[in-house]
Amino acid sequence: MGNVVDAVVQAGKANAGPPLGPALGPSGVNVKEVIEEINKVTASMEGMQVPVKVFVEDDKTFKLEIGTPPTSSLIKMVLGIEKGSGEAGTVVAADITIEQAITVAKQKTSGLSGADLRAQASEVLGVAKSMGLSAEGKDPKDVQAAMKAGEYSDKF
């Protein structure tokens, strides 16, 4: 097996500059082909940072493994915001609904540790809290507790 290049790229907009170009160049693989393939595969995630692994074989062929964007990136996309609060706990940047948390959980399923959709949505709310977001107009911790107590069951 050749080498593996790990990078985080802008979905749909990877280019031959750092981090990919310099890392792939010495492997002898066609960098332009790799970049085109990454951009084709990640086009639907445009606007997000996406983890990418490029496996370069000894015969100069390559295989891609595209990861899931970070939960915070998915939350920002669903809410249509550019960033969370710089003062989490004092300044609320936006409000996420249970439905939006479920949407993010479904997109991120493989990267979450929760056993079911309810637990995964709760994880998403935890990230939302750290981003300075409210959930259903309340502190995300309160919504997590309500979910655990059986509220919002009709959503799952």
From TrEMBL:
GO cellular component: large ribosomal subunit
Pfam family of the protein (one): Ribosomal_L11
Domain Large ribosomal subunit protein uL11 N-terminal: 8-62
Record-linked CDD domains: Ribosomal_L11
Free-text function comment from the UniProt entry: Forms part of the ribosomal stalk which helps the ribosome interact with GTP-bound translation factors.
Family to which this protein belongs: Belongs to the universal ribosomal protein uL11 family.
Protein name per UniProt: Large ribosomal subunit protein uL11
Organism: Marine Group III euryarchaeote CG-Bathy1
Gene transcribed to yield this protein: rpl11
